[in-house]
User: Fold these one by one.
Assistant:
Number 1:
Amino acid sequence: MPKYPNGIQTHEMNKIKAVIYGQDYQIKGKAPIEHLRLVSMLVDHKMKEIGEGNPRLDLNRVAVLAAVNVADEYLKLRQEYEELLRILEPQEMKQAEDLEE
């Protein structure tokens, strides 16, 4: 089960009403309501950012470019996270060895 930033986990389905890029949506998921709202706000912000920079783009292109941008940010963060884990792993092993002595 995924862990959310505030540590809340839920098995029940939550739903919210969200406005994303001027369109009404009902967002459903097992995530906490606060998480669903945050995700909706992030998508809305990203689409507005792209739409304002490219006012001639239609809704579908704005949505696809927003998805591409979010995926790019996610992959960069995941790569940074994995690199940090590689850096920390030898330190953790060294600490465990020191404790054994």
Number 2:
Amino acid sequence: MNWKQITIICMLLSCWVTNAQYTFDTYIAHKSLVNSIRISSDIIEGRTTFFEKQSEEKPLMFQKTKVRMGELNRIANNLSKYIEKTQKEINSERVLYDLIDQDAYRKIFFKSNGRLTASGLDLKRKIDSLYVQAKNVNVHALSQLENFYEGHFKTNGEYYNHDGEEISFFDRLFYDKSNYGMMMAMNYLMLDVKMYQLLYYGTIMSY
């Protein structure tokens, strides 16, 4: 599977999830997004196994790539596990059926003055680590990789709302600070992580 095929898979998943968000009811939209994440994870697992076998057969050719890939997966999985841990603590079912206090999700990441809490800063550090590693593995300066991590993982970038006012990365990520909105944003962030892993695998498999 080359990077073009991986890109098509990512686009299809993205379109499927976006359609689910706006077409189906709340519960189905959430489940569709979760399924997209699961499918992506399964593909990544298969690609990892395949590449590890290739690197065993041709260690001199793939050793450096194997190290970069391993570190990218470690950081990406660390961020994904953090998101999953947060989701379990807040309990997605309670969010879906409106069984928690209003702003319960927002208070995990934002203080009353709008600044990040300790958990918010922890999330930022993990995204920043992924951004740095995403740049490091892009040794051929491929635009499809660069455009993705610059658009999805650059927490110190310049972002603006619909009124043209500058906002932070996290205010853009969590533009809807309701419990449901923030839960879905965390899921979309996890899917972004998976998509970058898939795009990266597609590039190294094409060489």
